[in-house]
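Format notes (please read before filing issues)

Several people have asked whether sequences and structure tokens are stored in separate files. They are not. Every record keeps both together, in the order shown below: the sequence lines, then the token lines. Line labels are part of the format and must not be stripped during preprocessing.
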Amino acid sequence: MKNCLTLLLFAFVLNLSAQNNKLEKGEFSSITPSAETLKFHISDDNKFQLSILSGTYEEVNDSIYFNTSYADMPKFNLKYSNPNPKSDKITIDLGEFSYYQYYSIYIGTQKNINSPVEYKPMKDLLDIKYSDYEAKKLTFEIDKVEFIYLVEDNLKKESFIEKFQVPNDVSKIDVQYSSFSIAKLKFRGVYNQETKELIVTEGKSPIVFSKKVAQEVSEKPIEKKVQKNWTYEGKIADPTYDYDYPVDSTSVGVGYADQVPQYVFKLKIEKTLADAQKEASKYPNKMLVVFYDTNKNAQKEFDQYIENYQTNNQYNMYDKYNPEYDNFNFYLATDKDKNSLKKLGITDNQSVIFLNSDGEKLYHTKAKITDDDYAYYNLSSINIDLKPINAHAQFDKVLSNKKKSNADIQNTFLNITKSGRSNYTSVMPPPVYPATDAVIQVKELGVVEPVEDAAISVDSTAVVQDYYDYSVLKEKNNIYKLKSSQKEVELKYKQLLDFHQNDKTVDVDFLKIIISELSMNSGFSNILFNKYDEALNANDFQSIDYVLKFFYEIPKIEAVDYYDQYTTTSLIGIISNALNRTSNKSQTDKVIGYYDKLLKTTNDDSWVLKGKMSLLKENQKDNEFLNTFDAYFKSFIKDDSSIIEQLDKKYNSETDYSWNEFKSTFANEANEAAWFVVENLKSQTPSILKNAIKWSEISLIIEKSSPYYLDTLAQLYYRNGEKEKAILTEQKAIDNIKDGTFEQIEEYKLVLEKMKNGTY
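Then the structure lines:
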């Protein structure tokens, strides 16, 4: 930053000296994307000030704390446009840059609020190579989506994730990226009264600040989150390096803010493996790392490893203990531990073993203490890999123990559910998991007492999907594999459902399990057995009953993170998506019955009616479909008053797209239902024809002179015995064809001819 500013100042002076025009006074803002936060202030006394950062400060004792104005400044500025209205793609234009400016940037796409987010590295979409040093135009295309996520990924630091909602009529998005990381730093300073110097540091070296910088954002993200060690399933890990060198506290000069962490982090290293495991058992979420090494330098290497780990954690925690960074205990095993290690299946010298708090082996491999893959600075990546593995191991332990309480069983289901999300308490929606053909046979844990009315049809063998792209755990055969069968898991889930059947208020943790399971790709069935699009079973229907019971209480729950933000709309989407699974074909009547339950709960919500209509139409239940559409239609149009005003009352800017699209969609739905009567019903009763004609006429009030809608209405008139009106309306349909094909025109003319000669 310093060299950059020096060059900028030098260039500015040269330009000033080269200009013959009189320089105006006032404030000049940089329009260069890489320096958008800079401003020049030109004053009347031939002096200037360069402003790069500003904020507020607070004086506490001898220290000054600075809070930057740009701490919440978006990393990405977006501008929407629609140069190609007919395109089903969106062009992402990043401007002209060189590869390194987008090398650590990721883009996520989400079709709608109920869809998963799919992430891709920007460098892959741009086909960026290491050799691409020259600036060039950077563009690529994506499918149309409702939301995009832009991520600045910072290894070992906080990653910045910004979510944007994309209007439906957008075909081009210009993206401007601002790395401006200095705005995110936390500054402290002291003022030297004798020298009149203000010395400011963010913990390592002094930095000078100046005045306020304004930033104009074109499109603001609808959501901004900050997440440490951001990742997603399938992300290829970049190599990490340690830059957190220890600081010599004796070199800090008087007047500088403290550079040495105030909190001292120390590990307790046990003298026996049994003691190490006993100590580890106190911390369910921590792992015990066992280095088995009998070589003469092992103790020295182990001591150095522990020192490095402690120093690194000390700097991460800085001024107080933070359990987020304390994920491991350590033990050096030698010859005296041979028998104990043999029981764990470890016989190779120079091995590393990861045990959980129950003493279960999660992973092992041959490795030296000094191997880079297992160095202290890679432990955060290892922890990410081990968390879902540990959840599986703890899940097995609870399910195999008949003495465990319902609370214990529920907690282990919840942990499995969380392991299928992001690996941190996160703000990001779950990514799509890659498919796999891996099938692993596992042995039964024993006879499980039957549960009445379970009605669960599952395989007794576990099908385990390897979702995780383990960045460090490369020996796949040495990773802990789930032992519980799907039948055992389903019966335990049934046990929980029965236990909660008489709840008076919603159990929030149990609800999280239910919602994830109904949402398919984030539920325990998918995480454990790769079962995500199965036909709904008795447990699933009982789960839906639980949600319906507390349907209006659930949205009032205070959300902890993204996953737990429930609205009535999102609950409708979750239940409807579950009911509309194609695998439910064999139990259509039962699914329709649950749609009726949902309609009763939501007072005939229009979105629920749409879901039921789709199901009925797909299963060729024609009369039921038309009756449901009539109820749907009447939920919008209640009388003969202004159609547009009635539609406007139903329009919701938060859940619907634009007003024009909203009314056009309704008109199209009315036309499609009317055309369904023309095309599919041979026996058309007067009441059915009357309804269809009304639907068609309303579609033409909204979309005047549409040839498609006019053709539908003409054919309905004819079938209703109104021949003259039918002929006039069909002729009007032909007259209003502007961009139609030759085939469409000929088709309409043929219909008109048949109407005229009575052969229709």
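For reference, the curators noted about this record: The chain has a mean pLDDT of 80. The longest strand covers residues 89-97.
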